[in-house]
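Title: Request for sanity check on Histidine--tRNA ligase prediction

Description:
We are preparing a figure and want to confirm that the structure record we downloaded matches what your pipeline produces today. Could someone re-run it with the sequence below and paste the raw C-alpha cells into this thread? We only need the C-alpha cell string, no images.
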Amino acid sequence: MAIQRPKGTKDHLPGTPGTPEIQAAAHAHIQHVAAQLLERAGAQFIATPIFEEAELVQRGVGGSTDIVRKEMFTVYYAGDHGGYVLRPEGTAPVVRAYLENGLKQLGSPLKLWTHGPMFRAENVQKGRLRQFHQVDYECLGSTDPLADAEAIALMWDIVTTLGLKGVSIQLGSIGDPEDRAAYNDYLRGLFTPRLAELSEDSKDRLSRNPMRILDSKSETDQAIIAELNVKPMLDFLGAEARDHFGAVQGHLQAWGVPFEIDPSIVRGLDYYRRTAWELHHAGIGAKSALGGGGRYDGLAQELGAKEEVPGIGWAFGIERILLAMADEGVPFPQGPSPALYLAALDGDYIPLAAALTRQARAVAGADFSYRKRGAGQAFKEADKKGATWAAVIGSNEAAQRQLTLKHLGSGEQVAVPFDELNTFLKENA
C-alpha cells in the first residue's frame, strides 16, 4: 500500500479546483492580503521555529488548558533533554523571540506578524486539522486600549478585504488577575456542590482554572451551566478593566468596526487579560470561530522576563477562512497563469522560443514548450496553462523576427516584432 499523508493534514496543491483548503494559491492569497494590510499598519514580519521547548508552551499557554494536557505533539531526540513540542500557537513563541533577541530596542510598541503551520493533536473534523495554518499579529509594549481596538480593526480589515460579509466580532473582557481570581472563587462555590455530575475534564478544571468549565465541550456540563444561571465574567470586572473595555468599544464605534458584546467569552489560553474577542462565521458550522485574540500583559513574566511587557494579539486559521469564503461563494485565485506561451513548430527553433520566453519574463509571466508542437496542439497547451497570449515559431517567424500572438480569450491576432515583445506585454498582459 502506498504511503499516505498523516491523518489531520492536507497537501496544498497547485491548480486544484474544488476544496479550497488544499489550494496552494488560495493559501498564498490569504497570506498576501494579510501581509499587505498588516505591513501598511507598521507590522514587521517575524518567523519562529516550528518546534519549541516544551516548557515554553507549558508556562506560556497554561497547564490547565486542553492544549497542554491533551493536544501537544512532543518531539524527543537522543540525549538528556525534556523534549520539544511542535508549536500549537504563535503568541508564546513570538514573545519568547522578542525577549531572547532584545527586540525592545526596535521601539515600543512593536508590531509583529507571522504565518505558518501550527500543530494540535485533536479530533479531526471539518475545519479542525492536526496541522493547520494561521496568520498571527502581535503588538508588544502598550497597555493603551487604542492598541486593542487597532488589533481588532486590523483583523476585521483583512477578512472584509478578502471578500467575507457574514462575519461577526464577539467582544468581551476577562478582567485583571484579581477580577479573574474573584470570578474563579465564585465559580468554585457554584460548581463544587455539583462536582460529581461534572465531566472528568471539568472536575480537574474546578481546582486548576474554573473558568475553563464554561468552555467545556461536554453536553452534561453545558446543561449544568445553564441550570445554574452562571453570572458572566463581565459582572466581576474591576473599575480599571471596565474603563479599558469601554474605551476599546468607543474606538471601534468611532471607526465603524461592528461588534457584539458577548459576556460568555472565555479564551482557551491562560495568558489572556482584559480584552478578549472571537471572529465568527455561521456558515462553517457549529464550530463557527475563524479566530480570536486578546490582551496578555502577564505572558512575558511567565516566560521569565524581569518586567512586564504588555501585549495584544490575535490569530485566525487560514483553512477556516477559506471554508467561510467557499460558503459565501467568494472566488479563489487559481495560481499564476502565464501572459505568454510559445511553442516551436520545429525542433531547431526550440532554443529561440526559450530565449524569447526568458526575455519576456522581465515584464510578465511566460512559459514555453520543451518539444516541438503543431499549432493546434500548442494552443491547446497554452489554454490548459491559462495563458493570455500564445504563438508558434517556425521558419517564417524566425526569418521575419516577428511573432503572431493570438489572444486565447477573444481570438484576436497581433503581429509583434521580437524586439517589441516586452513593450507589448507590458501594455497588454
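Thanks, this matches our download. The mean pLDDT is 88.
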